[in-house]
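Backbone shape codes:
===
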Amino acid sequence: MIKFNFNANVNIKNNGGTPDKKGLKMILIVFTIFILVFIISAISMTSFAFNSINSLEQRIDDYNKQGEAIPKLPVLKCKIYTDNTVTAPLSGQQSSLYLLRVGTVKYSKRLRKTDESFDYSMVIGYPKGTQISVNGQLYPIDFKLCIVDNPDTRNMPYLYETYATSHSTSAFLINYKRNNNQKIPALKNSHPWIDSFIEHNSPNNLILNEYIFKNGDSLYIKGKIENNKIVPFVEHMVQ
């Protein structure tokens, strides 16, 4: 039979060596530096996130205020003059000038309804050398974005519409309209909302309305005349 002795004495002897004070001091210094770096990093990240949120909220607030100011801006009634044409990007039709109205749609689960909203700044395309007439005086066009007086009240029916969705589009909006994402990449660098959509940021869906104009057609834009040039009020657009 095997017997266990539970009364055995175990003696742990100290060899009498002194602790390494330099080593302990170095460990404390490294640990302190690590804690300081961690605290500074946490403060920096928190500050960055807070500033980003404030900046975004400020941009949204500025955008809304600018949107409210747009109707009060002066309108220039123009006529388009050009002998050349360009191909409109959505319909593929030849036009003396085209406009792209950029919007998005949101779905409210609480109200069970969709709501379309459009940016007040529109993409404008035209042949080189195109001029517009204001009060009988011809002026060159030299801009890519413009603010058009409300097309809904100016009898401007859009000729072509396309709808695009992304991987983050709500299931309620995937089939909101017929999808046509293929045309979107060619519009890169034409409008901030389009660029953001292409980069998989907000908005997660796009509605594009295309307006076609022929030589001699009238166009109403928010703008002014400076130094013998038409200056559109695109400076009101939040970049």
Observations:
- The chain is about 25% helix and 30% strand.
- The chain has two domains: 22-72, 74-236.
- Helices lie at 21-69, 192-198.
